[in-house]
Amino acid sequence: MSLLNRADKQDGPDALLKLTEFYQAAAFNICLQYRAIPDSWRQSRTILVPKKGDPAEITSWRPISLLRTASKLFSGVLAARLQARLLEYDVLSRTQKGFLPYDGVFEHNYVLQRRMDEARTTSGDLCAAFLDFSNAFGCVPHNAIVDAVRGVGAGEAFAELVQDMYYESSSSVVTNDGCTDPIPMRCGIRQGCPLSGLLFNLVVDPVIRKVQGTTADHCILAYADDLTPLARDPASLQASINLIEEEAGRLGLSLNAAKCRSLHLSGCSPVGLRGSQFLVNGTPIPVIRDFEAFAYLGRPVGFNILQDGSDVDAAIQLGTRILGSMLAPWQRLDAIKTFLYPALHHLMRTGTVGKTDVAATNGAGVWLRQRDLPHVLNHCMRQSQAITQRHNNVVERVKKASAGRFTLVSENAAVGDTQLQLDLVLVRGEEAVVVDVCIPFENRKEALVQARRTKEEKYRPAIDHLRRRYQRVTVEAVVVGALGSWDPANDRFLKKLCSRSYLKRMKQMATSDTIRASRDIYAAHIAGPTR
Questions:
Q1: Across-strand partners of 422?
Q2: How confident is the model at residue 531, as a pLDDT?
Q3: What sign for the dihedral angle of Cα 508, 509, 513, 514?
Q4: Which GO terms describe its molecular function (predicted)?
Q5: How far is Cα 262 from Cα 237, in angstroms, rounded to an integer?
Q6: Amino acid 12: pLDDT
Q7: Residue 213 to residue 93: CA distance in whole angstroms
């Protein structure tokens, strides 16, 4: 499955993706057998993605490793197997939600909000520390990674594979002036590798378990390297921070006091945040005050937070830039679905955006005209000429089929004083047939049935007028769906017009004409008006 999911990726220098899945699997099995990977898979390029903070500081950039596609495919296979084992045997602490198939962002935000509500309503206290590691992924020793894999019982073969992945690995940093020379990676986990997140979880899991212990309630919330110890009093929280410092230090990790935050909410009167001070490496960490907010997993946390609407404004600006860009229409839609929708969805699910913030968008429904597929293919006035031509194409097919057995006496003309425009009036002796072509949108079979019934009722007044001249007068509807569906009820009447063999051919031609015309209508709508 991992191979199929990455089938559209560029193969790169290894050219592995030019081979079939069979040969790719064979290459991966060789790696498993020898517990080693090719030397080229240990090489990578590193790009720097900006984070919050001063761009002049190197700590404000996140290094992302660009690996060879073959290497990522193989790592993806290993990651899927490792994750299955971790979940099956509950290897990781239940408070760890990072890089796992859980809705961990919302779970942790819910737990934190519940604990804050509990403190307010029961006159209790909640102390929380939002801890930040300095270069967490880049400081983990490679031997700690291998030891963690062995410690969970993943097998010696798996551990040796992981060890070989990091053996003499190197990376070139992409800069404005090109790539640097290869830099040996003596420690750290490569961000960008499918296996990296799970490996980091294994390394940091002992730290989390030390703090959580056997307590049923949450003593710590973990999302990868974002650790948030919780306590009911300041002394207990400081003890948890000290324990995390000690255990993380053994793994080569250190906390960054400047980026950490602390919160002490008291439910005692006056209810609000207290200024309790907490230390990290002997340095006081900033305290969250009343009316201030701290973004925890994308959601502002605090007491009496002042909403400024900046998140909604940023989303609107992003959408405006995307829609006004030079991208193709389908690329704009893809960009909106990829970047804008998830951001708004996250804001709404976390309760960051209130109903009044999106009230303006609710009013848009008053003037907004739907541009769904039925509208485009059947009701769009801009495409009315093409819609009429699609209808006339089917009329021509019916007229040609009737030429041998019926006489055409009227086409697209009103009959008497009825003001009804009849597509065709066919006559044979004392029999007259009013034929009208209808091309509805196929909203299930009922749509075709309803379209036929509507046509028959609409042209019933024409029957009374024609009966003055002909003894037998009927109304027949020829119904073809806008997407090419053929109503079987058409055959009963059309068998009178032509032979069975010609009818079969006519159905094929009519449906193909309709599909072609509908495709052109849709393409013209997407392309927009010509300038």
A1: 413
A2: 46
A3: negative
A4: RNA-directed DNA polymerase activity
A5: 10
A6: 54
A7: 10
**Could you tell me which of 304, 341, 297 has the C-alpha nearest to residue 106?**
297
If DSSP codes are grouped into helix, strand and coil, which group holds residue 55? coil
pLDDT for position 386: 94
259-314: pLDDT as tens digits: 999 999 999 999 999 999 999 999 999 999 999 999 999 899 999 887 777 788 88
> Please, what is the angle between helix 196-212 and helix 142-151, to 10°?
70
- The radius of gyration computed from the CA coordinates of the chain, to the nearest angstrom, equals 35
Q: What is d(CA 122, CA 102) in angstroms, rounded to the nearest whole number?
A: 30
Other Cβ atoms within 10 Å of 352 Cβ, number: 19
CA distance 249 to 244: 8
How many angstroms separate the CA atoms of 105 and 88, rounded? 22
- Report d(CA 379, CA 132) in Å as an integer: 57
List the chain residues with pLDDT less than 70.
1-20, 355, 358-370, 529-531
Q: Any idea which fold 373-527 has?
A: Trna Endonuclease; Chain: A, domain 1 (3.40.1350)
Pull the structure tokens for residue 44.
Answer: 């990578």
Count the Cβ atoms, other than its own, within 10 Å of residue 398: 23
How would DSSP label each residue in 385-426? HHHHHHHHHHHHHHHHHHTTT-EEEEEEEE-TTS--EEEEEE
Q: Bridge-partner residues for 187, per DSSP?
A: 141
Report how far residue 197's alpha carbon sits from residue 385's, in angstroms, rounded to the nearest whole number. Answer: 57
Query: Containing H/E element for 248?
Result: helix 234-250
3-state SS class at 354: coil
Cα–Cα distance, 253 to 205 (Å, whole number): 13
The rounded distance, in Å, linking the Cα atoms of 19 and 529 is 44
How many CA within 13 A on the CB side of residue 447?
Answer: 14
User: Residue 56: helix, strand or coil by DSSP?
Assistant: coil
d(CA 228, CA 399): 77
Strands (E), 151-298: 170-175, 178-179, 183-184, 220-223, 226-231, 261-266, 272-273, 279-280, 283-284, 293-296
Residue 32 is which amino acid?
L
- Which DSSP string do the residues of 456-505 spell out, in sequence order? HHHTHHHHHHHTTT-SEEEEEEEEB-TTS-B-TTHHHHHHHHS-HHHHHH
Spans of all domains in the chain: 1-303, 309-367, 373-527
Q: Nearest Cα to 503, choosing from 447, 273, 511?
A: 511
Instruction: Evaluate the omega torsion of the peptide bond into residue 270 and state whether it is cis, within 30 degrees of 0.
Output: yes
Pairing of strands 283-284, 472-479: unpaired
